[in-house]
């Protein structure tokens, strides 16, 4: 029950930040924003690790340099999920970018079955297909679409494929512990963004940052830290298939907030698509 609570809390935090990325990205730029956000999270996780270790709540895990490098490797691959997500936001409405995140359920079920030998049934396969139909209803209901595979959709697919490598985090989290793993994760994200920025510097159009953007960046750091810890803790303590199922609340929360925050209207077809995902998630959770 405790891991499920952490999973829900983490997805609520991430569902909210998924909406908050848009304005800061437009004002600060993709890579500079990721650097600021990941550096803030890195500081919080690093301080937390040393404080909790000093007071005896956690101990320093016995890990080798090879363990750290392997962890950085999988985190470096996962990093491109965030990179392509922000790219998708440049070419598609937030509602479409977030909505396609439901495909993560399909990937999660596949990883749970083939990698972690978790049980699966025809009912789960059918419900997973229902979610995919719901995703399609969200994405293809746009009246502005001119091509079958838009840039926004392409980047959304790429972001979810790379982000889904997080399902492979389990052995690394188990070995390092959730907090140290988060330290390595954020260090990798910050380093990758900095290297990409130095390799191909982009001009920051706004030297001054608005109060709204500063507020949103602060929330990205706080909620990002909360979401990262909760979800990585939960990953090592819950069924991957169940983790993917509960993850459906993330795009639903994101879409709901997007409608209010960015004033993006959801069509009737999009609403039906969301409903299909929610119903499938409820039935799947009841048939775990």
Total DSSP helices = 14
Largest sheet: none
Secondary-structure element pattern, one letter each: HHHHHHHHHHHHHH
Q: Compute the CA-based radius of gyration.
A: 19 Å
Distance between the termini: 14 Å
- Kindly name the structural category: mainly alpha
- Strand fraction: under 5%
Mean pLDDT: 82
Report the helical percentage: over 70%
Number of strands: 0
Provide structural commentary.
By secondary structure, the protein is mainly alpha-helical. The protein is 76% helix and 0% strand. The protein has 14 helices and no strands. It has helices at residues 2-20, 22-28, 30-54, 65-91, 94-99, 104-114, 122-139, 151-163, 170-176, 178-199, 211-235, 240-246, 249-261, 268-286. α4 runs antiparallel to α8. The mean pLDDT is 82.
Task: Give a summary of the structure in a few sentences.
Helix content is 76%, strand content 0%. It has helices at 2-20, 22-28, 30-54, 65-91, 94-99, 104-114, 122-139, 151-163, 170-176, 178-199, 211-235, 240-246, 249-261, 268-286. The model has no long low-confidence stretch (mean pLDDT 82).
Note the topology:
Layout (H helix, E strand, L loop, with lengths): L1 H19 L1 H7 L1 H25 L10 H27 L2 H6 L4 H11 L7 H18 L11 H13 L6 H7 L1 H22 L11 H25 L4 H7 L2 H13 L6 H19 L2
Helix pairs in contact: 1-11, 1-13, 2-3, 3-10, 3-11, 4-8, 4-10, 6-12, 7-14, 9-10, 10-11
């Amino acid at each position: 029950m405790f891991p499920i609570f952490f999973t829900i809390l983490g997805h609520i935090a991430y569902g909210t930040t998924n909406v908050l990325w848009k304005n800061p990205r437009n004002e600060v730029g993709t890579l500079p924003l990721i650097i600021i956000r990941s550096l803030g999270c890195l500081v919080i996780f690093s301080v937390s690790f040393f404080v909790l270790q000093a007071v005896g709540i956690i101990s320093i895990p016995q890990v080798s340099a090879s363990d750290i490098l392997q962890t950085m490797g999988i985190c470096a691959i996962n990093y491109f999920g965030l990179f392509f997500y922000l790219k998708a936001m440049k070419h598609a409405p937030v509602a479409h970018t977030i909505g396609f995140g439901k495909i993560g359920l399909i990937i999660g079920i596949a990883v749970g079955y083939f990698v972690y030998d978790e049980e699966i049934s025809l009912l789960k396969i059918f419900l997973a297909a229902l979610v995919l139909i719901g995703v399609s209803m969200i994405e293809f209901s746009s009246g502005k679409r001119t091509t079958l595979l838009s840039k926004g959709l392409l980047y959304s697919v790429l972001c979810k494929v790379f982000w889904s490598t997080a399902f492979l985090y389990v052995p690394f989290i188990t070995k390092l512990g959730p907090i140290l793993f988060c330290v390595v994760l954020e260090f990798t994200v910050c380093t990758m963004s900095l290297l990409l920025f130095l390799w191909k510097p982009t001009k920051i159009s706004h030297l001054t940052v608005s109060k709204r953007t500063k507020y949103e960046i602060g929330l990205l750091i706080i909620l990002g830290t909360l979401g990262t810890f909760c979800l990585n803790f939960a990953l090592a303590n819950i069924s991957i298939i169940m983790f993917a199922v509960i993850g459906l609340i993330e795009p639903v929360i994101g879409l709901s907030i997007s409608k209010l925050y960015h004033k993006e209207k959801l069509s009737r077809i999009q609403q039906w698509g969301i409903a299909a995902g929610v119903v499938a998630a409820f039935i799947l959770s009841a048939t775990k």
